Amino acid sequence: MKAKPRSLLGIEPLDSRQILEILTLAKRMNPARPRTTLRGRRIALLFYENSTRTRTSFEIAAKSLGASTVVIHATTASIEKGESLKDTGQTLQSIVDAIVIRHPSSGAPILLSRLIDIPIVNAGDGMHAHPSQAMLDAFTILNHKKSLKGLKIVTIGDIFHSRVARSDAHIFSKLGARIVFCGPDVLLPECARELAPGVEIVRDMEEAIRGADVVMMLRVQQERLSGMQINIDEYIRRYQLTPAKLKLAKKDAIVMHPGPMIRGMEMTDEVADCKQSVVLEQVLNGVKVRMAILTTLLGGKR
Amino acid sequence: MSTILLQGGHLIDPASGFDALADLVLKDGLVAEIAEPGKAKAVADETLNVKGMIVAPGFIDLHVHLREPGQTHKESIATGTAAAAAGGFTSVCAMPNTRPINDSPAVTRWMQDEERGAVVNVFPIAAATMGSLGEKLSDYRGLKRAGAVALSDDGKPILDDHIMREALALAAKVGLPVIQHAEDTKISHGNPMNEGATSFKLGLRGQPAASEWQMVERDIRLASQEGGRLHVAHVSTAKSLEMVRLGRKSQVQVTAEVTPHHFLFTDESCSNYDTRYKMNPPLRSAADREAMLAGLVDGTIDAIATDHAPHAQFEKEVEFDKAAFGITGLEIALAATITALQHTGKITLTRVVELLSTNPAKIMGLTGRGTLAEGSIADVTIFDPKKRWTYDLAKTRSRSRNCPYGGMQFYGKVRTTIVGGKVVFSEL
């Protein structure tokens, strides 16, 4: 049996039992019914990158457990003056009990966990990982499907730049799903199939979506393209989720999006607002899952 | 000057074809006598018993960064050459990316000044273009006169075809090789690691193999038109080696070096965002690593060079994409070569000496070095090829510790390093 994790740096180091424990705990969590599990604990939300959804979600989750939070934005802190991650981390370590970190550099939370000794929660690092998002995505699917075993989950769009796609693939793979990646060459290199067991690549969107249980749409991260050429009109024609394409999926398929969603780009209004879309449900589930994550890492004896 | 007798060793000198037990007498800074064991005529002031050891011409590192002038928080000529001596290198060729850039005879001379405290020979490689900006050639004749042995903008490849053509043509006239760090930065974008399944998994942007081999291909094409000698620095991809082979077939004078890390490791070593495995060119695929080993065996690769690149802890203990490129390597080059290649039976000890001494001397045109023939310069490396040891990074002579070799077990240990007839390192 693996030791209980102290930090959540990614999905890869976890086994399915540890993942399901957190997801089961998340079912009992509800921000409308605050708990006192983390009363007196201080959690720093260290954000080197802008984020509304994830930061708010973690903040509400922490407060719903009785913890106090302090939000540190890179632009307002000594970080802007050139302080290293090491020094920022060591400074925080002496005054908080845990750090939730969002960082534009892949691997930054792993570096931080090597440098300091308090629990670290990865709230998204570069293009690498976004484990709490992956857990809330798995949680949301489990609200609609009995299990992930054997499900066909198709992820469509800008997979190269997406930490969500990577962490999702790891969690879906560990929970037994088939993962189909779909997107143009520049946003989905062939080596993506080596990411995790069960990952396939299908370039044609209609073929990819046929018979899917879950359709996960991703935003094209235009701010990260750095020189890559994307023809927007062609992208929309080939990869936008329309009601017609959605019909190819299973009747009870659900449509997901980690946000922020660009209507008219990766999906039409009709799809974004259709009954099969669980995008808003993902947001609420985010708080529950993050309450479960913080409880698992910080709850129990001090 | 004293006379040293090296007694009972196994002398290997590929340049003269000597490979037998022999006594070696060093006198007045030169190789004075090679004699059958116990039959040396000279009277020695000092006798070193080197039984069981290999006595080889001093190793020559074609590629080091001594960081001086300008970045002595990383290394100095004194500390870098001390590490070189411990690694059996009697000569090092120092890259010009110092501060200021070594693009002038003045800096070239300054680096060789006795006051720098070098314990081994320092041969500066001067910048091929002013400020290594790739725009205007530096003064090749003046640099050669000041002691430069080659020209390179290492780390800042010469991208412009026209400038590379001019550099090759002028260097050919002056009689110096041009060393290229082959990287098309328009393709590599300075990305922190090799492009492949590992970089995808880590969410790091990668340098495709093509950013290297396409530049090697171009350089060989230009060299075939302009003449001159092209030396490919730290080759890292299988395809680059193919280009070198093709170039040689069409009579282009092209040589190539490889670093120990490119034949020891692959990009999978970056899996934990460990910046000790971040260097440029980056660690490549398993197939590329195999190709490096094969190239060392079949002769495509001429030399092993360390690309010793010291950095302070604060420059490495940061996010992977922000960390400085490069690792130190002077002290383990021989051990790495023996462990990966000779101990495994892939190459002979003679080939080891060729890769570390004979060929580097030829590439840089260092007359009187890279051989132990009578009358040559008394630069000698004595090593025990069978000795098993663990590299203790805490004891490094370098000012920096940015390398993954600490705690690694190796075969093959340098025992004594002699420069110009003077012992500069000894563990006998």
Characterise this structure.
The complex is a heterodimer of chains A (302) and B (428). Chain A has 302 residues and is α/β, with parallel strands linked by helices. Chain A has 2 domains: 16-129 and 283-298, 3-Layer(aba) Sandwich (Rossmann fold), CATH 3.40.50.1370; 131-282, Aspartate/ornithine carbamoyltransferase (Rossmann fold). Helices cover 36% and strands 15% of the residues of chain A. Chain A has 11 helices and 9 strands. In chain A, the strands form 2 sheets. A 5-stranded parallel sheet of chain A has the order 7-6-5-8-9. Chain A has a 4-stranded parallel sheet with strand order 2-1-3-4, with helices on both faces. In chain A, β3, α4 and β4 form a beta-alpha-beta unit. Chain A is globular. Chain A starts with 15 loop residues before the first helix and ends with a helix. The mean pLDDT of chain A is 94. Chain B is of the alpha/beta class and 428 residues long. Chain B has a single domain (59-364), classed as Alpha-Beta Barrel (TIM Barrel). Chain B is 29% helix and 24% strand. Chain B has 13 helices and 18 strands. Chain B has helices spanning 77-86, 105-112, 140-146, 161-174, 185-188, 197-202, 210-226, 238-249, 260-264, 286-298, 313-316, 333-342, 349-364; strands at 3-13, 18-27, 30-35, 46-49, 54-57, 59-64, 89-94, 121-126, 150-152, 178-180, 193-194, 206-207, 229-232, 253-258, 303-304, 380-390, 409-419, 422-426. In chain B, strands 1, 2, 3, 4, 5, 16, 17 and 18 form an 8-stranded mixed sheet that branches. Chain B has an 8-stranded parallel sheet with strand order 6-7-8-9-10-13-14-15. In chain B, α4 (161-174) crosses α7 and α7 (210-226) runs parallel beside α8. The longest helix of chain B is centred in the middle third of the chain and has 17 residues, at 210-226. Chain A binds chain B through residues 84-86, 103, 105-108, 110-111, 115, 125-129, 160, 163, 166, 189, 191-192, 194-195, 226-227, and chain B through 189, 196-197, 200-204, 272-273, 314, 317-322.
